[in-house]
Amino acid sequence: MPELPEVEVVRRGLADHVLGRTVTAVEVAHPRAVRRHVAGGADFAARLAGRTITAARRRGKYLWLDLDGDDTAVLAHLGMSGQMLVADPGKPDEVHLRVRLRFADDGPELRFVDQRTFGGLSLHPLAGPDRLPAPVAHIARDPMDPAFNLDAAVAGIWRRRTGLKRALLDQTVLSGIGNIYADEALWRARLHGERPTERLTRAQGRAVLTAAAEVMEAALAAGGTSFDALYVNVNGNSGYFDRSLDAYGQADRPCRRCGTPIRREAFMNRSSFSCPRCQPRPRPPRP
DNA sequence: ACTAGAACCTGGCCGC
DNA sequence: TGCGGCCAGGTTCTAG
What we know:
Blueprint: H1 4-17, E1 23-28, H2 41-48, E2 53-59, E3 62-67, E4 72-77, E5 82-87, E6 97-103, E7 109-114, E8 120-127, E9 132-133, H3 150-159, H4 164-169, H5 179-189, H6 202-223, E10 263-267, E11 270-274
Antiparallel strand pairs: 1-6, 2-3, 3-4, 4-8, 5-7, 6-7, 8-9, 10-11
Helix pairs in contact: 1-6, 3-6, 5-6
The protein binds a DNA duplex (16 and 16 nucleotides) through residues 1-3, 32, 61, 77-81, 96, 115-119, 160-162, 166, 169, 171, 178-180, 268-271.
């Protein structure tokens, strides 16, 4: 699933392949893909045509392309299954092609492909000192942001009165972390996801966030190896990093540190993976 | 104001 | 072989 490293791989691919190019025609094949563009698909297509892409930017799992002229950007969120593919115009359409952008140079087109349609594209003015699209305004900085402040993020976790994993997944505390990298960061920091945030020490808070930053950097390095000239990699899996996962998806396999079988627990209609020995459950709160 | 949980969506997989 | 049900999960919305 696309979390920060996967989205950054896509951003880099877009920077390589669509920067400086002018959009000529936009085809919206599925209205749900542009549902966050409130003026509708026709407006989206009309307003995007003729614009030149001047930058590819990202915060957390949000990605956007700055356009020339007024301060406007095409915002993209990949959801769970979204892909940005750079493809030759003659290539047959993907089954789940949702939006197509053709360019003035008749070169490779940009295709937004999304099986589960949780993702989408929309146009927004850029606002504020950081020139952000409105839907990104409430998203906290991510660990790869040069202005990311580790201690501020630890303070944000403390402010959330909940379990540690829930806080890690809260994109207003820090962004970019999803279920996979949350489990990996918790495993590296030897902390259970249900540990109450108010009982987290500063050192533990720093440890889990440092681990999150490190594991996402490592995943980015691995994911960066997997796309070639015409393919912007968003395969929905974790690039080539899935073979390096220590906790996520490793149920019943031995913990790489201690050999204890990794456990799987239900968490928010999904799963959490952890080592029962390295990451003991927190003691129940005293009444 | 803040937190928890449901809803959204499709295809692969499993058991019967 | 076919079918029902479960599972994956990021974000937004709603309920409490």
